[in-house]
Structures are given as structure tokens and as C-alpha cells.
Design a protein that fits this description.
The complex is a heterotrimer of chains A (about 350), B (about 375) and C (about 300).
Chain A (H helix, E strand, L loop, with lengths): L17 H22 L3 H26 L8 H20 L2 E3 L5 E2 L4 H23 L5 H20 L9 E2 L14 H23 L2 H11 L1 H6 L4 H27 L1 E2 L6 H14 L6 H19 L3 H15 L3 H7 L6
Antiparallel strand pairs in A: 1-2, 3-4
Helix pairs in contact in A: 1-2, 1-6, 1-13, 2-6, 2-9, 2-10, 2-11, 3-4, 3-9, 4-9, 7-9, 10-11, 10-13, 11-12
Chain B lengths: L12 E7 L6 H18 L4 E7 L4 H14 L4 E3 L4 H13 L3 E4 L5 H4 L7 E3 L6 H13 L3 E7 L2 H13 L3 E8 L7 H9 L4 E4 L4 H12 L6 E4 L8 H4 L7 E4 L8 H14 L5 H19 L5 H10 L10 E2 L5 E13 L2 E14 L11
Helix pairs in contact in B: 1-10, 1-11, 2-3, 5-6, 11-12
Chain C lengths: L2 H32 L6 H19 L2 H22 L9 H23 L15 E4 L2 E5 H23 L1 H11 L1 H6 L4 H24 L9 H15 L4 H26 L5 H26 L10
Antiparallel strand pairs in C: 1-2
Helix pairs in contact in C: 1-5, 1-8, 1-9, 1-10, 2-3, 2-4, 2-8, 2-9, 3-8, 5-6, 9-10, 9-11, 10-11
Classes of the chains: A mainly alpha (about 350), B alpha/beta (about 375), C mainly alpha (about 300).
Chain lengths: ~350, ~375, ~300
């Protein structure tokens, strides 16, 4: 599951380097926590693990844009929120038994998660296509800021549009359903999230290893070189941006299910910042970085919040410490330099 | 923050308070918390375990804390949320799963009407109440042309709706501003250009501070009125003299007669070294409501405890207090005027805006 | 809607735009010279307002308070430059965003620990209160004219500083070639600290001036920070001239949009929905403006590099 631009490096065991070991341990820990909690009947910890898993999925999405494509998006909350609102709106219409669109063709709400995921990802893909088409004309700081601007636009729209609750948001009274399983059961829901996380990590790794991933990586490092080799970087980057948005949108849909609630706070610029924090805390471009980052963030927020109401101060210092002294994030700190350096 | 008041190993009741203690708007949460704790202290309640945690005004953080309180700490009652959007994220799910929720501040219309629930009690007000009271006051004051403005979000549009529900005159203008906006030069110019004889605004927190300061400089002299949220004791000092003379509506005032209120105001001022706001009074009442129910029933018997809560057999700082069919207050709402007392800017109660007022959504609630 | 009212609203837009310029100027200066995205610029604005409110309260003089606000923000700026920011110059934008995002958390909570949660009292000085009659405008607050004048003065002073002084020469040289100027014996470290503190001082000035008219509270810097970013991106990052034009453009579009959109929409729909649609659209307007400008000019209107 390494990246294609990686240069083979003498490893002690074939195919097993330190980062792989760290990754394995991270996955094992993420699975062990809810398993233990489930066995002793502590639903709270199972849900906490689901939250980490969902945030990790959002991070994997952004990591694909930043780490693979060099596209520093400060507006991924837009996709997180669109995913969430898809779930919320579908559940709302299903619960109220009203139509989402009455004419010209009748579209009703649904409580089928699988369908909602597909729609959520499709909508995020379309939104990313539009946002990316304009934003990718810019680069550097301009790209950071224009993605932020688009997210803000959607945020203000959500706050002031009364149909789906405005700032109050929408409650999802009954969790949507999956075939066969009971998605309302905390551990079942965690398992679903966990499998999806492994799925998106696999896809992300697979794409990175493909011809497309190589082109995207080349676009990150040197657009001109890519262009001279006969590939237009723009569609490559746009595709990468869309894929990234779809993954983050899936996370948003799951987040709404977990909380039983959607609201504009899912779209706020703080949220974009947080998703970025997952990626950087863990280590940019590291496949499992967002998992570590999301876990650290959630645990810090939860446990410092218990000790003191000044938790945001400590969180600030913790983040600052990682940026200044742990370049390459926590995974980088533990696993050493990535092989491609 | 996790603080425990009771040290006894076996507290009779466990209460989880989710409130805003950091960032913008934290004064409201701090006042609710302090009022709540004061009531417990004054009652000498050592059989109550109170867990408090900061939601940072984020719906998903509030939801996470609620889950922890319910699933891990197994609290009997949740309380403390300040904002409607946070309440909407937490309350419907929690009450459906059988946890009692006592609202100390937010009263969104959904929870008073169609989505009312037997486990949800609001000890403060339904969101529209204070605005309705102001509309009713405007009629009595003889205003015929009000200019009304509020931020463009549900609580804002509800505020304008509430005012218009009672107000009988015509409107000189109606503006929806941006949430968080802090410059009102353009809006004030529109007011000046209109032929308004009064202004009603709902701009909570910093928005209201900014509006009042800028209005005072504008040379426009139309009388201003609004709900207590822009003239509560936590922000009046920041507005300063610009607020003097403004009329506002509140279900409580620190000068309301009665021993309970006197004890509350004195105790609060002595303990915390500042004057209480209406939020503090709501926290205080919430704690006393719970204590009154505990005296009548054991919390493990949900039905009996709920019935005891519904009786609202406690001495409220605002005098008479009872719940309507939807577990929201039926109460008097007062008119207050901002004055300077001993160098401090504060509110003086000048009359009753509306008596025995019940919210407009109660009839949509199927409970009785 | 009379012509006089339209004129007054244009003046309001101009004034709010220039107030925004004070915030954007420091941000664009720091980016232009050091290539740094500083999300904590809004925190320096907040520090300026709080210091001003505190000093005014202690001394009873707004002018001393203003001095306190400017120097407090400059000191805070110099401090974080030496402790944190300096380590970020050769990092990528991603690290800069995260580190300064962390600084926002630290500043907000730190300010609350020092000054408490309640908004502070800061009012405009008696000498500048009240309003004036202007040609075409019945009454315009004196203090708003004062902010307008202060912003223009800052713009002129910045221009003189950068174009005419020795420090400005070094700043310009530093922008174009960092190694070269270091090789010429200029102490680049000190130069950067000075520039950063200068940017912070302007942010502090802005916080103190505008704080007196709005509200001094924790978190006050965040909305204005985002607006300032939109401004400098529209104007072209690093360009003071771009920041000036960008901020006026935003002030006008925002003010006129929120007043006139509902009025215009009333020709097409009923009153109530015109109000709510108008308000919703106008809150998105500046972001639409930004997207539109960047779609045509991906590097803003006045890119410093051109």
C-alpha cells in the first residue's frame, strides 16, 4: 500500500517497514477499543470510536487532495456538510412522508442508507466539479482562500435557508436503515464505519498506485513537466479533487447518522480547519495519518474538555507543538521519514 | 469541565449540565451554571451530583457530551443548553430515549408544538414569548409604525413573527440582517429614511452591543425596544449609557418583589461579586424545580417524578409559575427600563407587558 | 428610495470598506514580505481592542487607550513572531494555516482567562461623538468619518513608508530576494520581526478604532479575519493598493447588496420571501464576488508580482 513515487528502500523484512507496523497497530487499536467497550456494554466508547472512524474518513478524503494532489483545500467542510445534509434531508422527507421534489418528477425521501450514501457522494462530486473547475484555475494561497470562500457561501446559505431548519438544523429522529443489519445498534454502526474506512483507505492507496495517481503526484510536484509529457494537469487535478470531496462527503453522511442531527456547523470554516488538523496531526500524505490525527483530536477534545473549561487553550498548544516540532505529523514522528523522500 | 457538588458516594440524583463556558456567548452559560449551583448550595442539597461540561457552542460537541452523560455517566436529568440549535441537536434524541431534559434557556418552537415531549420541560420561556410581550407593549404604548429587524436565522425570524403576532400597528420597515453582523450603519440609515415611530430589534450578544452604540451616534431619536437578551446584565455594562432609557421585556427582573427573588439576588451578588442576569435566574429556577420534584418522588420512578416536575411546586424567583400542557411556562412577562442605579447600569421593572402568557404553539402539542 | 439615501448608503459602504482596509493592510503586508498566511491576524485585532478598552478604563482617556491598543497588539505580534511565526517562514502554507489556527485558540482562550467572559466597555470619545450634516446626508456620525480618515491616513503612511524610506527599501528588497538582502548585511531576522509587529500594530489600531463602535468581546476577530482574507485575495495578495481597492469594493457590494437586494427582489416576489431570499443572497454576495473575480483573474486584481 505504498505510493508509486516511492523509491524501494532496504527493509528488514520484505514489505514490512516501520510505517506498515504502525499502521497495523493503529487499525488494531481502533478495533480493540469498541470491541472492549461492546463487551462491557459501554455504548459511549463504541460511539466515540465511530466518531474517530468517521473523522478519519473525512481526513482520508482531504489527505488525497493535499497529500497526493497538493491541493490545500480549506473548504472541505462544504462536502462534509453536503453529505450530512443529504442524509438529513432524505430522512426528513422520509419521516414526514413528504416529497423532496414534487414536480416535474416525484422524488421522495428515503431511509435507506446505501442509497443515501450514493446520492450524498454524487452530490458532493457535482459540487466539487463546480467548485474545483473555478478554484483549480488558481494556486497556492489563492486556492486555499477560494475554497474557503465557497464553503462560506454554502454555510451562509444553510443558515439563512428556512426550509431545512436554517441555523437550528434538522433532527434525524430515526437512524436510517441498512439491509440485513440493525444500523441503530452502536457496534453494528461502528463496524459499518470501520469497513468503510478501510475501504476508502484501500481505494485511496489503489488510486495513488495507479497511472492516474502517478499523474496527480506529478502534477503536485511539477505541472510543467507533466504538461510536457503530454498530459493536461487540469482534468487530472479536477478528478482528484472530486474523488477527495466524495470521500469527505461520505464521512459527512455517516456523521449525520451518528449524531442524529445535521446543521450548518458541519459547514463552518472551523470544521474545514479541523479536517485539516486531522490530516496534519497524523502526517500529510501518510495513508493512515488521518486515522491517527482524528483519534488524537477526538481524544484531546474529549479528555481535556473534562478537566478544564480552558481546554481550547491546551488544544491550541498541542496543535502548535505538533506543527513546530513534529514535522511529518505523529506518524512521521513514530515511523520515520516516508520512503519516497 | 467536570465538577461534582455532592461528595456522598450514593447521590440520589445525577444531573448532567451541558452549557457554553468558552468562546462567544459564554457569559450566558456561566450565569446559568452559577445560578444553578447557587440554588443547590442554598438548599444544602448534598444528594445531588452535578456534572458540568462545556459545549463551546458547537452542536456536535453538545451532542457528544450528552451521549457521554447518558451512556457512560448514566445521568437522570440533562440541562443547561443555551442555544436553540444545540438544543435541537440534543433534546429530541435524548427525551425520546427516556432522559429528562430541563431547558434553562432555549425554547425552539418545534419542541413547544408538534415535537413536544413528556420528558422535556422548559423552565425559561418559549423563544417567541419575550418578543410577543414587546408587541403587546407596543400596542399599549400607542406605537403605530414599528421598524423591526433581526438576524436572518430561525430565532431571528421567529422573533419578528412573535412581535407581529401581538403588534396591531403597521410596519415602517422590516430587515433581516446577517448573523454575526457588527456594523449597522446601512440599517440605521434605512430607519432614518422611514417614518417609523418605534424600533423593535432582536440582536443578541455582540450584535446588540454594536447596534445600540451605533444607534446612539446616529442622531436618530426613535424609541427603541427589544427582548431582554440585548439588555441583560451580562452585556449592559458593555453598551454603557447608550442603553439608557431602552424598554425591554423579561420574565424576570432583579427588583421583582418576593423573598425568594431577594434571597437569590443577594446570594448571587455576594457569592459571585456581580449582579445576576435573567439567565442566572433561569438556572436558579431550574435547580429549584428539580429539588421540588425530588422532595415528592424518587427519580427512579420516572412517571411519578415527571408528574412532580409538572406540578412545578417550587418557589420561583418570578413569583407564580406553572407549566402549560406542553411543559412550557405560563407566566407574566414584565416591561423593564434600562436605568443607572448607584453608578451601575441595570434594569428597573416598570410594568407588566402580558399576563399569564402561554406560547402560541401549545395547541399543536398533543400532551395535556 | 431617494437619491440622498442612496448616496448615504454609498458613503456607508465606503466607510465600512475602509475600516476593513485597516485589517487587510497588515495581513497583505505580512504575506507580501514574508509569504506567511496568518490566521491569527484576527486575534491581534482582538488584542488591540481589549488593550484599548482596558487602558481607557484605567486612565479614562480614549487616546491613551488607542495608544495602548496599538502598542499592545504590536508587542503581542513581536512576541509571537519571535516564538512561533519565525519558524514558519520556510514551511508550506499548510503548516502556516495549522499553526496560526492553533494561535487563534490560544489567544481566544487566553484573552478570556485574563479579561473574563463579559464583553468589555469601550465607547467613542466625547470629542468624536454625535453626528454632522453633510451635503446630501442629514446626519452622519463623526466617528465614522474619523475612521474613514484614519484608514486613508494609514494607506498614505504605508505608501510613504514602503516607497520612500530606508526601511521600506529593505522591505521591498526582502520581498524580491531574501538571500541577496541577507548577503548584503541586512539583519533579515530583525527586519521580519519589525514588519510583523507593524502589521500587528495596524491590526491593533483597527481593533481599537472599530471596537469602540462595535463590541469588544472574545472571538470578535474571526468574522473580520475572513473578510480581510477575501479582500486581499480579491485585490491580489501582497499588494497594498489591491487591499485598498478590494476592501472598498467589498464594503460597497456588501452594504449596497444587503439594503438593495430585498428591494429589487420585491419586484419579482412577495414581500416576505423577498426579504428572506434577499438576506440569504446578500450574505453570500461577497463570496460570489470573490469567486467571480478569481475565475477571471486567478491572482486577484493587482497581483504584487506584476
Amino acid at each position: 500500500m505504498q505510493r508509486t513515487d516511492a523509491v524501494p528502500q532496504p527493509a528488514t523484512l520484505p514489505g514490512l517497514n516501520r510505517e506498515t507496523i504502525v499502521n497495523g497497530m493503529v487499525v488494531a487499536a481502533l478495533l480493540a477499543l469498541p470491541l472492549w467497550a461492546f463487551s462491557v456494554g459501554e455504548d459511549y466508547y463504541v460511539n466515540l470510536a465511530s466518531l474517530i472512524t468517521i473523522f478519519a474518513i473525512a481526513g482520508v478524503g482531504l489527505n488525497f487532495a493535499i497529500g497526493q494532489g497538493g491541493m490545500v483545500s480549506f473548504g472541505h467542510a462544504a462536502f462534509f456538510g453536503i453529505g450530512g445534509y443529504t442524509t438529513g434531508v432524505a430522512a426528513f422527507h422520509s419521516f414526514e412522508e413528504t416529497l423532496f421534489i414534487a414536480a416535474p418528477l416525484a422524488v421522495s425521501g428515503t431511509n435507506q442508507m446505501l442509497l443515501i450514501w450514493v446520492v450524498a457522494m454524487a452530490l458532493c462530486g457535482i459540487a466539487a466539479l463546480a467548485i474545483g473547475a473555478i478554484s483549480l484555475r488558481t494556486e497556492g494561497v489563492y486556492f486555499i482562500m477560494i475554497t474557503l470562500a465557497f464553503a462560506q457561501m454554502i454555510y451562509y446559505f444553510a443558515i439563512s435557508w428556512p426550509a431545512y431548519g436554517g441555523e437550528d438544523g434538522l433532527s434525524i429522529y430515526l437512524r436510517n436503515q441498512l439491509p440485513v443489519m440493525n444500523a441503530d445498534h452502536p457496534f453494528t454502526f461502528f463496524s459499518v464505519c470501520f469497513v468503510l474506512l478501510l475501504g476508502v483507505i484501500f481505494i485511496s492507496a489503489h488510486l495513488s498506485g495507479s497511472r492516474f495517481g502517478a499523474a496527480l503526484g506529478a502534477a503536485r510536484m511539477n505541472e510543467t513537466r507533466l504538461a510536457t509529457s503530454g498530459i493536461n494537469p487540469f482534468p487530472v487535478k479536477l478528478t482528484g479533487f472530486v474523488i477527495s470531496a466524495m470521500i469527505t462527503g461520505l464521512a459527512g453522511a455517516l456523521f449525520a447518522e451518528l449524531n442524529g442531527f445535521v446543521g450548518p456547523s458541519m459547514l463552518s470554516w472551523h470544521r474545514s480547519g479541523e479536517i485539516m488538523v486531522f490530516v496534519i496531526l497524523g502526517g500529510v500524505g501518510r495513508l493512515y495519518g488521518p486515522v491517527v490525527g482524528a483519534a488524537l483530536f477526538v481524544l484531546l477534545e474529549t479528555y481535556i474538555g473534562e478537566w478544564t473549561e480552558h481546554w481550547q487553550l491546551l488544544l491550541g498548544f498541542a496543535l502548535l507543538g505538533v506543527v513546530l516540532f513534529a514535522r511529518g505529523g505523529v506518524v512521521g514522528l513514530i515511523a520515520g521519514k516516508p520512503r519516497h523522500d | 469541565m467536570l465538577s461534582c457538588i455532592a461528595v456522598s458516594a450514593q447521590a440520589d440524583i445525577k444531573i448532567g449540565m451541558i452549557t457554553t463556558l468558552s468562546g462567544g456567548g459564554s457569559t450566558l452559560g456561566i450565569d446559568v451554571r452559577d445560578g444553578f449551583e447557587l440554588a443547590l448550595k442554598q438548599a444544602g442539597a448534598n444528594d445531588v451530583e452535578l456534572l458540568i461540561e462545556d459545549d463551546a457552542r458547537k452542536p456536535d460537541v453538545a451532542k457528544k457530551i450528552a451521549d457521554k452523560f447518558v451512556q457512560k455517566d448514566k445521568v437522570d436529568i440533562l440541562t443547561g443548553i443555551i442555544w436553540s440549535n444545540l438544543a435541537m441537536a440534543v433534546v429530541p434524541a435524548a427525551t425520546r430515549k427516556g432522559t429528562l431534559y430541563i431547558s434553562t434557556n432555549a425554547g425552539p418552537s418545534a419542541l413547544a408544538g408538534k415535537a413536544c415531549h413528556e420528558n422535556y420541560f422548559n423552565v425559561a420561556w418559549q423563544n417567541d414569548n419575550l418578543h410577543e410581550a414587546m408587541g403587546s407593549h407596543a400596542n399599549r404604548a400607542g406605537y403605530k409604525k414599528s421598524f423591526i429587524l433581526a438576524p436572518n436565522y430561525p430565532a431571528g425570524t421567529d422573533a419578528l413573527k412573535g412581535y407581529k403576532r401581538m403588534y396591531k400597528g403597521e410596519l415602517a420597515g422590516e430587515l433581516l440582517t446577517k448573523l454575526g453582523q457588527d456594523d449597522y450603519a446601512a440599517e440605521i440609515a434605512q430607519i432614518r429614511a422611514s417614518d417609523a415611530d418605534s424600533i423593535f430589534f432582536f440582536l443578541p450578544g455582540g450584535m446588540g452591543i454594536a447596534f445600540m452604540k451605533q444607534y446612539a451616534q446616529s442622531g436618530v431619536n426613535v424609541p427603541v425596544m427589544g427582548p431582554a437578551f440585548s439588555f441583560s446584565q451580562d452585556i449592559l455594562p458593555a453598551i454603557g449609557d447608550a442603553a439608557l432609557g431602552v424598554v425591554n421585556s423579561s420574565q424576570w427582573g432583579k427588583d421583582l418583589e418576593g423573598d425568594v427573588n431577594a434571597k437569590f439576588v443577594q446570594g448571587f451578588t455576594e457569592t459571585y461579586g456581580r449582579l445576576p442576569s435573567l439567565y442566572a435566574s433561569q438556572g436558579y429556577d431550574a435547580a429549584n424545580l428539580i429539588l421540588s420534584a425530588m422532595a415528592k418522588a424518587d427519580v427512579s420512578n420516572k412517571d411519578a417524578f415527571r408528574a412532580a416536575l409538572k406540578e412545578a411546586d417550587f418557589a420561583s424567583v418570578r413569583g407564580d409559575f406553572k407549566f402549560g400542557n406542553n411543559n412550557h411556562p405560563v407566566q407574566d412577562i414584565y416591561v423593564r427600563k434600562v436605568v443607572k442605579e448607584d453608578g451601575q447600569i441595570t434594569n428597573r421593572t416598570v410594568g407588566i407587558a402580558i399576563k399569564d402568557h402561554q406560547d402560541a404553539y401549545a395547541s399543536k402539542c398533543r400532551m395535556n | 428610495m431617494t437619491a440622498a439615501l442612496i448616496f448615504e448608503q454609498i458613503l456607508n459602504g465606503l466607510q465600512s470598506g475602509l475600516a476593513l482596509f485597516l485589517m487587510a493592510a497588515g495581513l497583505t503586508l505580512v504575506f507580501g514580505v514574508m509569504g506567511l498566511i496568518n490566521l491569527a491576524h484576527g486575534s491581534l485585532y482582538m488584542v488591540g481592542a481589549f488593550c484599548c478598552a482596558w487602558v481607557t478604563q484605567q486612565t479614562g482617556s480614549f487616546w491613551l487607550g488607542l495608544g495602548g491598543g496599538v502598542s499592545g497588539a504590536a508587542a503581542a505580534g513581536a512576541l509571537i513572531e519571535m516564538l512561533v511565526i519565525r519558524r514558519l517562514y520556510d514551511r508550506d502554507h499548510l503548516d502556516q494555516v495549522l499553526a496560526t489556527f492553533a494561535l487563534i485558540l490560544i489567544f481566544s482562550e487566553g484573552t478570556r482567562m485574563v479579561f473574563g467572559s463579559m464583553p468589555l466597555y469601550l465607547n467613542i470619545p466625547a470629542a468624536l461623538s454625535g453626528s454632522l450634516t453633510l451635503p446630501g446626508v442629514e446626519a452622519y456620525p463623526v466617528y465614522r468619518l474619523f475612521i474613514l480618515g484614519a484608514a486613508l491616513a494609514v494607506a498614505v503612511l504605508l505608501y510613504i513608508l514602503i516607497a520612500k524610506t530606508r526601511l521600506g527599501m529593505r522591505i521591498r528588497a526582502g520581498e524580491s530576494d531574501r538571500e541577496m538582502i541577507a548577503a548584503l548585511g541586512v539583519d533579515i531576522k530583525t527586519l521580519y520581526t519589525i514588519v510583523f509587529a507593524l502589521g500587528a500594530a495596524i491590526a491593533g489600531l483597527s481593533g481599537a478604532l472599530v471596537g469602540a463602535l462595535r463590541s469588544v468581546q472574545v472571538g470578535m476577530g474571526e468574522p473580520v479575519l475572513i473578510l480581510a482574507f477575501v479582500t486581499i485575495v480579491i485585490g491580489g495578495i501582497g499588494s497594498i493598493k489591491g487591499a485598498l481597492i478590494g476592501s472598498v469594493l467589498i464594503g460597497l457590494v456588501d452594504t449596497l447588496g444587503r439594503i438593495f437586494l430585498p428591494v429589487i427582489l420585491k419586484f419579482f416576489m412577495e414581500n416576505a420571501s423577498a426579504n428572506s431570499v434577499g438576506a440569504a443572497l446578500s450574505s453570500m454576495l461577497i463570496y460570489l464576488l470573490m469567486a467571480g473575480i478569481l475565475a477571471v483573474k486567478p491572482k486577484g486584481l493587482f497581483n504584487a508580482a506584476n
